[in-house]
């Protein structure tokens, strides 16, 4: 039994915390083992195969071969859990001419393969395609702070129950859903209140 808990939850330098040469806005990283006990956290689930093995199975069913570039991308993407886009992934990879270099075209194509293989999920946020782990992680939703642009993961049994009830009411079998709730996080709310108090002095 393979567990992402043991092998892929080290706190590597996260995506979205670097100065991108493209000057694109970055998405902050949300890791599972957050130090603030009040922050939402998720527990990964045990799976029978490693991400590499799962992807190799997928490639075989498509008549495709495993390559060193694909292996590099699986290792990089699953070295830690976060939310990222293609540009942020490219920015983390070795530059052209260096060992393990992967072209931008290969990155975009392989990310689509990861989604098709069930390794990643993708969703749109502020006009960008954002990726996150699907394989080995439970169904969850997101809270998005429009001020600091942090993306928080959470699970809610009442929400899941409500969606099931809605499905039954409409004769609809729900296989999954995605919800992103926009608002202002606790820390940004505190900072805003503090600034208001200072302005009143």
From TrEMBL:
Region named Disordered: 1-24
* Cofactor binding note: Binds 1 Mn(2+) or Fe(2+) ion per subunit.
- What GO biological process terms does the UniProt entry carry, in alphabetical order? negative regulation of DNA-templated transcription; regulation of secondary metabolite biosynthetic process
Query: Which cell locations does it reside in?
Result: Cytoplasm
Q: Name one GO molecular function term.
A: transcription cis-regulatory region binding
Entry keyword set: Cytoplasm, DNA-binding, Iron, Metal-binding, Repressor, Transcription, Transcription regulation, Zinc
Q: Name one Pfam family in it.
A: FUR
For bias type Basic and acidic residues, the affected ranges are 1-11
Q: Which InterPro entries match?
A: FUR, Fur_C, WH-like_DNA-bd_sf, WH_DNA-bd_sf
Residues at which Zn(2+) binds:
145, 148, 185, 188
Give an example GO cellular component term for this record: cytosol
Task: Tell me which domain of life the UniProt entry assigns to the organism this sequence originates from.
Answer: Bacteria
Which cofactors go with this protein? Mn(2+); Fe(2+); Zn(2+)
Record-listed Fe cation binding positions: 141, 177
| Family stated for the protein in its record | Belongs to the Fur family.
Q: What PANTHER family is this protein classified in?
A: FERRIC UPTAKE REGULATION PROTEIN, ZINC UPTAKE REGULATION PROTEIN
Subunit comment:
Homodimer.
Q: What is this protein called?
A: Ferric uptake regulation protein
